[in-house]
Design a protein that fits this description.
182 residues, alpha+beta, outer membrane lipoprotein receptor (LolB), chain A, 3 helices, globular
Length: 182
């Protein structure tokens, strides 16, 4: 009997700590309207970095460093990747960013998924949605989003790490305006 009580006690502790982690991540997400950050990205072994701003829901603006003026912009409906020599426009709903940039979607998924602790510092949730597998990562101290891993629409393996996060800043008007093709 004592053994069953001991198992029940440990299961209760584990459940409560898991619920506490989820609650802290959700409370943190609920406080955020926008945030900017530095990023490092690995797409199929090719490294890139730069700065991004995310505004919920579903808006992002990224400038890549040293990459012929590459930018990535979403206005919540379309996603554009533009360089000096190329211009690609996609419906946002066809990309994994559609889920990553949707705070309410993330909160709902976090509520229903089990987290995994990686190296005691990172909290990971694996989301499977509409044929996409997305791993999202949160810091175990600040409960901030610190990255994601997914396959892009061309099935390239993409890992993005974010750092130097600043939250709820005043943003420029028209920051998320889709650039023209010129």
């Amino acid at each position: 009997m004592f053994r069953y009580l001991l198992v029940f006690f440990f299961l209760t502790l584990t459940f409560n700590s898991n619920a506490e982690i989820k609650d802290k991540i959700i409370k943190n997400l609920n406080k955020i309207n926008n945030f900017d950050f530095k990023f490092e990205q690995n797409i199929n072994g090719e490294m890139a970095n730069g700065n991004c701003i995310i505004e919920y829901p579903k808006k992002i603006f990224c400038e890549y460093a040293r990459s012929n003026n590459k930018i990535l912009v979403s206005n919540g409906k379309s996603l554009v990747v533009k360089t000096r020599t190329s211009y690609y426009r996609y419906p946002l709903e066809k990309t994994p960013l559609n889920f990553i940039l949707d705070k309410n979607f993330l909160i709902n998924k976090i509520n229903e998924l089990e987290e995994r602790i990686v190296d005691k510092n990172i909290i990971n949730f694996t989301i499977i949605e509409k044929g996409n597998e997305i791993n999202i990562f949160f810091d175990n101290q600040t409960y901030d989003l610190i990255g994601w891993q997914n396959k892009d629409i061309y099935q390239n393996f993409n890992v993005t790490f974010i750092s130097s996060i600043r939250k709820n800043r005043v943003l420029k008007k028209n920051l998320f305006k889709i650039p023209s093709q010129n």
